[in-house]
Amino acid sequence: MTRAEEFEELRPLLFAIAYRILGSVSEADDAVQETWLRYEASPTQPTSTKAFLSAVVTRISIDVLRSARVRRETYVGQWFPEPLLTDPYEDPERSAELADSVSMAALVLLERLTPLERAVFVLREVFGFGFPEVASAVGRSEAACRQLAVRARRHMDVGRLGSRRTAGNARSWRRGSSMRSGMATSTD
User: Fold this and answer.
1) Which of 148, 145, 174 is nearest to 159 (CA)?
2) Which phi and psi (to 5°) does residue 151 adopt?
3) What are phi and psi of 63, to 5 degrees?
């Protein structure tokens, strides 16, 4: 299998990770494209393409999110994340999963998290990555990732207390979806 074929096979996962971290379709597409460029330029083949690409897209998304927060500090008015109205890959099953787990309320709740908390929460709670994989993806120790996950859950729980509707959406994020069972490589 060529690098391009491997990448295309993992593109939906990479887009889902980037979109759930960034909350913007265009920024998620850009993060996935930047991931491809870095993968293509890499001189060696990683032992796990999925782990490597997940880590790259996560780190790119964290960098974009940090930059976006700086840009939003000068934005007049309240910023709302961009909802995903259609699945760019036109897969009805994936569209239903994305609609369930990426509601506007869930995206707004994720805005309460720091970029690292958000990345850890998405990788751990939505995709079911194990703490070793999460730690590798965000460049922190497993213990630090466990603490980030606890903080992220606490922030999400505080946000859920305000509204039953919001709480239902946050629970769907934490519950994950059928994607979790297909994408998880290990659990703790």
Assistant:
1) 174
2) -60, -45
3) -60, -45
Residue 12 CB: number of other CB atoms within 10 A? 18
Q: What angle do CA 109, 110, 113 make, to 5 degrees?
A: 110
Structure tokens at 110: 């994720």
Domain locations along the chain = 3-183
Q: Is 156 exposed, middle or buried (0-12, 13-18, 19+ CB in 10 A)?
A: buried
How many CA within 13 A on the CB side of residue 92?
0
Q: Is the pLDDT of residue 60 over 90?
A: yes
d(CA 88, CA 172): 22
Six-digit token string for 114: 């720091």
| Confidence band of 159 (pLDDT split at 50, 70, 90) | low
* Closest to 17 measured CA to CA, from 30, 32, 39, 37: 32
Q: pLDDT for 84-110, tens place per residue?
A: 555 554 555 655 555 554 566 666 677
CATH code given to domain 3-183: 1.20.140.160
* pLDDT greater at residue 20 or residue 157: 20
Kindly report the length of the chain.
188
CA separation for the pair 169, 177 (Å, rounded)? 12
